[in-house]
Amino acid sequence: MHPLFTSKELSQAKSRDKLPFICLHCSKKFYMLKNKVLAVIKGKANNKAKFCSTLCGALHLNPPITVKCTQCGKDFIKAPKEIKKSKSGNHFCCTSCAAKWSNAHKTKGNRRSKLEKWIETQLPLLFPNIVFEYNKTSAINAELDIYIPSLKLAFELNGIFHYEPIFGQE
Q1: Per the structure, how many domains does the chain have?
Q2: Fewer beta carbons below 10 Å: N end or C end of the chain?
Q3: What is the C-alpha to C-alpha distance for residues 53 and 24, in angstroms, rounded to an integer?
């Protein structure tokens, strides 16, 4: 408790008068009713007279920690309780980084459809003299499901182009 009043001012104040304090976290001046101050003095309200808000109290007791994004390496601030939630020890600055990392490190499910896998087995049988690349990013810096470098031809199966108008309504 960091009061800005004397014991004489406390005794002369009425129960609904506001008495000044300094916040232990942000050092701002704040006020409390005399009856609340007396409750703190009697031990009925622990941290009420120490902080101007519950946010300042939480930040003072559990200060945020700077962590590095597992995906992009950017430093960002995270609350200690959020750090404890992360069982894997990975921290992400945004949902985009979390999704990119998750997709690249999948251990369950399929990243490729059954159709893609079947086509990958059939194309070399049907066209043995042609080189095919599957799920490579070298051609356009984005993943292509099937790419034929000699023909500069690419196939995207079930890509976003099938569901959203990327280049306009047409």
Answers
A1: 3
A2: C
A3: 11
For the stretch 142-157, pLDDT in tens is 778 899 999 999 988 8
The set of residues, in sequence order, having a beta carbon less than 8 Å from that of 6 and lying 6+ positions away, is none
* Distance between CA atoms of residues 92 and 77, nearest Å: 10
Give pTM, 2 decimals: 0.44
158 in a structural domain: yes
Q: Is residue 82 part of a domain?
A: yes
> For residue 121, what are the domain limits?
114-162
Is the domain of 49 the same as that of 70?
Answer: no
Residue 159 tokens read as 């890509």
Q: 17 in helix, strand or coil?
A: coil
Instruction: Classify residue 170: in a domain, yes or no.
Output: no
Q: Enter the tokens of residue 79.
A: 């609350």
Let me know if residue 120 belongs to a domain.
yes
Summarize the confidence of residues 26-45 as an average pLDDT: 86
Alpha helix stretches (DSSP H) within the chain? 7-12, 34-41, 54-61, 80-85, 95-104, 114-126
